[in-house]
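Hi F.,

I've been meaning to write this up properly since the lab meeting, where we talked about keeping a consistent format for the predictions we share between groups. The idea is simple: the sequence comes first, exactly as it goes in, then the structure tokens exactly as they come out, then a line or two of notes. No screenshots and no reformatting. I'm using this chain as the first example so we have something concrete to point to.
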Amino acid sequence: MVNFKIYQIEQKQQSKIMKQIIINPIGIIHSPYNNANGIPIQGKFKNDVEAYAELLPEYQIGLKDLDGFSHAILIYQFHNQKEEKLTARPYLEKEEHGIFAIRSPYRPNKIGFSIVKISKITKNKLYFTEVDVFNGTPLIDIKPYVEYFDKRENVKSGWIEKHFQKENEIPKQAIL
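Output, unedited:
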């Protein structure tokens, strides 16, 4: 049985929190991809392409010590995507899946993330490979990829597993 008074209080607290979240970009991502032609669905499928994130000057100091990491997680906005869907067809197959079971840009909040390989950092620029982001993408945040925190054991990958049955073979649909 649900305690109705507690539920009402939680609803009121949620309505205060859930009105609006304002996130300001910290920079912009510069990549060779101006459209979907040739872009990989995940950067690790095309690791020889370089891009860079240019941070606003006030965030440059935030890059301190990131050069000690091999990879970073870039969090960004799917700025070119205007449409929202709760089901969509991923590039790997013809069947639609729930938006939270795929990595499509049709997401309700248009937030994406990529794990990139750090090449170098100079001033307010983070250079990287393993790019899967359009040129001009607003950068929201950067986090270091930490193997001890981010790597998981006994991982299941749902519907995607059938596309990666052959070891070290990338499906042709992985590059657009």
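Notes:
The two ends are 51 Å apart (CA to CA).
Helices lie at 4-17, 147-150.

If this format works for you, I'll send the rest the same way.

G.
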